[in-house]
Amino acid sequence: EKAGFDHFMMKEIYDQPKAYRDTIGSRISEDGSRVVLDEIGMTADEIRRIRNIHIVACGTAYHAGLVGKSVIEKLVRIPVEADVASEYRYRAPIITPETLVIVVSQSGETADTLAALREAKRSGARVLAITNVVGSSVSREADDVLVTWAGPEIAVASTKAYTTQLMAFYLLGLYLAQTLETLEQAEIVRTLAAMQSLPEQVESILARSEEIKAYAEKIASHEHLFFIGRGLDYAVALEGSLKLKEISYIHSEAYPAGELKHGTLALIEEGVPVIALGLQTELIEKTVSNIKEVTARGGEVLGIAYEGDNELAKSVDRTFSIPRTLDLLSPALTVIPLQLLSYYASLARGNDVDKPRNLAKSVTVE
Ligand code: M6R
């Protein structure tokens, strides 16, 4: 059932091109001009009444929610907050009937996420669930359900659930934008076309997994590592950092690149590995100047950049390149080398990749 792979995690990483296709699948009209989300029961009028959106989830699903927040705010210009479920449920969030609450959960059984969903419903909000398990508690209790067709995810470290959650947010963001007419039709078509290229682009990254393996073996003996990025790159950095901690047990932190010099830069010394994500075109120059702050102190930087981005490549020790896509969609590609990195680092350290210590696949207790 591992389909010839040594671990479920690796199988699931390689499942991603198909998982993207299955999740996008029939949700794009045949002429590629619009999103079709028949499973969303909200009428256009109900969508027009939404004043704010809360995205609530745990762990990796929360990190997908952070990308979702940026996507929806950019495409629809409705204010979105993203919250960790265990915080949300106890902070007396301001929920009104005009709030749309989106809960994200691979398993659909996470106790804190389910409690947040119930709290939202009690407060009169409409709840939309993004989940990978049809018939799960979350899917039964939500008003609308957007299923991620990732297929069963067995490894504790979430990979294809995260990336299909991203697909769900792109589709949802575009769907809201087409309903509220906040985006030019040509822009919708362009984004949908770029989404349809993602599976092949993921395949081309996976074909270069050896590059990441070599880097993983190099950093496997380190105890600390940093990820930096701005905007969506920062959201992906958080996910890369969680994955690395979870299965390799290497301590890592994700930092907004511009925030480094407000404290964390003190930890950068000779040889400390730093992974810098630079896929947000308008911010690359800023990120490059943060990279220079790191290299000036001896930090060793792996840059993740678009093919042909010499500006970033010039400023780092080594680069892993990502095929060109829209900056908005880049998280769906950038996270792939980070997943591979955590996998190979875990392997190099002799850990149980699929069953990391102290963790369960589904956290059904508070
Ligand atoms: O099933 P859920 O998506 O609700 O699970 C949420 C988290 O427990 C989960 O994403 C966790 O963070 C992963 N093990 C991370 O790889």
TrEMBL record:
Residue span(s) of domain SIS: 43-182, 215-356
Main location as per UniProt: cytoplasm
Catalytic reaction equation(s): D-fructose 6-phosphate + L-glutamine = D-glucosamine 6-phosphate + L-glutamate
EC number(s) recorded for this UniProt protein: 2.6.1.16
GO biological process, one term: carbohydrate metabolic process
Keywords: Aminotransferase, Cytoplasm, Glutamine amidotransferase, Repeat, Transferase
Residues annotated as the enzyme's active site: K361
Protein's name in the database: Glutamine--fructose-6-phosphate aminotransferase [isomerizing]
Protein source organism: Paenibacillus lutrae
Lineage: Bacteria, Bacillati, Bacillota, Bacilli, Bacillales
Full-sequence portion shown in this chain: 244 to 609 of 609
